[in-house]
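--- STAGE predict ---
source: upstream dedup step, 1 unique chain passed
mode: sequence only
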Amino acid sequence: MAENTTAMAQNFIHDFIDEDLAAGGAYEGKRVHTRFPPEPNGYLHIGHAKAIYVDFGTAAKYGGICNLRMDDTNPTKEDEEYVDAIKEDIHWLGYDWEDRFYFASDYFEEMYRFAVELIRAGKAYVCQLTPEELSANRGDINTPAVSPYRDRPIEESLDLFQRMRAGEFPDGAMTLRAKIDLASGNFNLRDPALYRIKHMAHHRTGNDWCIYPMYDFAHPLEDALEGITHSLCTMEFEAHRPLYDWVVENVSIPYHKPRQIEFARLGINYTVMSKRKLRQLVEEGKVSGWDDPRMPTLCGMRRRGYTPASIRAFSEQIGVAKADSTVEYSFLEHCLRADLDDTARRVMAVLRPVKCTITNYPEGQSETFVLDDHPKHPEMGTHTVTFSRNLYIEAEDFMEEPVKKYKRLSPNGLECRLRGAYIIRCTGCVRDENGNVTEVLCEYDPNSRGGDPADGRKIRGAAIHWVDAATAVDAEVRLYDNLFSDPEPDAAGKNFMDCLNPDSLEVLTGCKVEAALADAQFPESYQFMRQGYFCVDNRDSRPDALVFNRAVSLKDSFKAGK
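--- STAGE serialize ---
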């Protein structure tokens, strides 16, 4: 499991918790107990990472504990595949629930008993309104809702509810509704549904049940049964809080009333974070899968080369607030770049290679150079590269007719450094029958080993990375951009599928990387000098066919205070 050393700064949630823990507070002398309750119907994304950080981080800040609970009350798209993936992602981020792992389905029998209690107390009833009738009778802010079944005799509702469980009625024929207030200005209190009929096998309980509790009924019961002190959730549940409180106050559960506190959910430009929409991208083949490196899923970000530390730093630095806001995607990249700049080994890779021949270097001769793995961290060690007459350089590092201020190789006598090796100057090039440059011809200064001329002359040309043709390893490199070209693909009135970026992936084949990368393995990250930060693809790469994903470029486009 990744080491988690991120300290959580004080925020408004902690102010509320401090009040509860203070003398006379609701939880004076008690241990803070939170929970993270994802539904196992898809893969976690960067928005969930913020919630994980808030739930687990808050518990850690107070020396408390945090449960992991699968909210599996809707069998429609829930699956063990997602359960396993969620656990893997949370561990990867550096958090652990120890032995506090639960399923909402663990409580199905208890929830049913609580529902029967509410019916017996005259606080719930079986309703037979169709969805269309229910909508027509919902009323508005000035008009109460109407339910012709609200005064149904208790014994009749009990009988119907038992028969619902027994499977006598089809999907949608009946619901169990709470009897609260049909005139409430909060529409969540206008006799909300507590149970619905759904004849569908559940990933854990199979066909034992054909009625399933609604989230607003199940969630407060789960929190209360597990002893949660603070139920932290996003702002869309603020209007549901009175119903949350009503449920735990009106059942015979050993009294324990968790405090629900809401915070703003994460929004990032150039992406969508609806699991339904992410699923659509996968099912329609717009991406290669949930772990496509362009996806905001944690498995996709991990495959691309994001690190747990960078995501935790991002979650900490964006803060926790009440008001919704949109964070720039470039800031997420900024956090990754800051982490990799400190931890990634430096190596050389040529992505668009052209042959470079050092014409005055002896044929058949070879030598080695020792390069630092990191210029700021000598403790990371060194590695060796070979040098010979035939090299590969980037095609863009040669221009036969250079433009103004071009300071790389061209037949104009300008000298350039080969990183860590020698000073060279270009003497010409070789073209094929179509006029394409196939070889750059250069001469080297044998007295400049290490990249510095012996006579101390000033070198005006750029430093160029290279690889030895004799030992270079072939690789495929994948360059990623935003999946969407529109900064607000999820905005009202837009079809997010129309906002896809056709240039979000560029695949480069025939790339040349230095021999030290022959045994590169996921998840180690590397800085390809002058190119960006890369890691081995954890799905497609093989020892005999390396594939590298660019996690992020070297250039930081995020501007603080922008």
